[in-house]
Amino acid sequence: MKKIQISPSILSADFSQLGSEIKRLEEGGADMIHVDVMDGHFVPNLTIGPPVIKALKKQCSIKFDVHLMISPVHKYIEAYSDAGADIITIHPEATDNLEKSILKIKSLNKKVGVSLNPESKIELIIEQLEKIDLVLIMSVNPGFGGQKFMPEVLDKVKQLKKIQTQNKMYFDIEIDGGINFENCQKAIEAGANILVSGTTVFKSNNGDIKKNINLLKLK
């Protein structure tokens, strides 16, 4: 079983103090930083672009897990790579040619993630699984932080884990959306090994990030 990793979402951070917030995450034991990029088109919200990521990357030494909720995504892949993304996660619905976009990310020596929305089927990515480093299962509809966890997506996590085991594949299974102390164990038992959490990491236990990360890891 892969080690459980926590990728805190900076969507829940204090945006006026992002540099220091990222340092707090690193000091608190975060395994990577989850950066949600939204374009107001693919999802109904706007967040940050490459210049902000480039500036933030200088503030820490841990990996940037960049989730691109933008369409069309292909033409922006290189910009986010240059900005400092270590993992670039895209949605199959946001590109005309998923394989081409996956190979583009690989050509830039970045890890490839592909994300499935709650209603998106595994069949959308099944032929590409051997080329993918990470599958991100959304447990909320993307676009806003602080939404309630959708337990029905755990069946998709289990299905993906079964495919991974049967075919001896090594991609990570990440889950994002409403992850908290009540549901993290179910997500891990279903097969997820990377948990994205924003509100729980930043707001619980009076903002004790280290404690919250350890609780999510079930330590």
Description:
The chain has 219 residues and is α/β, with parallel strands linked by helices. It has eight helices and eight strands. Helix 2 packs parallel to helix 3. The chain is globular and about 45 Å long. The two termini are 16 Å apart. The model has no long low-confidence stretch (mean pLDDT 95).
The structure class reads: alpha/beta
CATH topology: the name is TIM Barrel
Largest sheet, if any?
A: 8 strands, parallel
In CATH terms, the superfamily is Aldolase class I
Taken in chain order, the helices and strands follow as EHEHEHEHEEHEHEHH
Percent of residues in β-strands: 15-25%
Low-confidence segments, ≥5 residues, pLDDT <50?
Answer: none
Gross morphology? globular
Number of structurally distinct domains: 1
Count the helices. How many? Answer: 8
Total strands: the figure is: 8
**Structural Rg:** 16 Å
What is the typical, i.e. mean, pLDDT? 95
Quick one: CATH class? Alpha Beta
